[in-house]
Design brief:
The chain is an all-alpha fold. It is built from eight helices and no strands.
Length: about 150
């Protein structure tokens, strides 16, 4: 089975063979089915496919077009194009730009970095406020040990 980007190149060259017509909506529906079929067959998606296209393309488009919407990527592209055929061609131009982008600017990367910074800040503040002379709670070797204590 082809990887996602090889398949997209084939669809770009012969859309009628794969999706019936050069339609960005038909393309998105095909890709949803393709992803589902791979999952059903137990074929794990590659990092490039799953983490890059399926998770980052939609947010990247929103940043690229400076819009915020819950609409799918095909609807965003259709909104920006004169007709369906232009939207289909535009998808492949946008896909090429997406694949050549600076990945450090991805929304998920930025959010992850912010979460790590926030977690580190919380950890630093907790360690600064934690008394150094405090005796740690009793640590039991096994769950059975804690049952031996009176009151349990």
């Amino acid at each position: 089975m082809s990887n996602l980007f090889e398949l997209l190149k084939k669809i770009e060259q012969k859309p009628g063979l794969y999706i019936g017509t050069a339609s960005v909506t038909a393309l998105r529906q095909f890709l949803v089915g393709y992803k589902f079929a791979r999952q059903e067959m137990g074929i794990m998606p590659t990092e490039e496919e799953e983490l890059d296209f399926y998770q980052e393309f939609q947010p990247w488009l929103q940043v690229h077009f400076s819009i915020q919407t819950a609409n799918s990527w095909d609807t965003i592209i259709l909104f920006k194009c004169a007709d369906g055929k232009a939207a289909f061609a535009s998808f492949f131009r946008l896909l090429e730009q997406f694949r050549n982008r600076d990945k450090s600017q991805d929304i998920n990367s930025i959010l992850l970095e912010r979460e790590v910074e926030k977690t580190e800040k919380i950890a630093r503040s907790r360690s600064a406020n934690y008394p150094r002379n405090r005796v740690p709670a009793t640590i039991y070797a096994s769950p059975r040990d804690c049952l031996k204590k009176p009151g349990f």
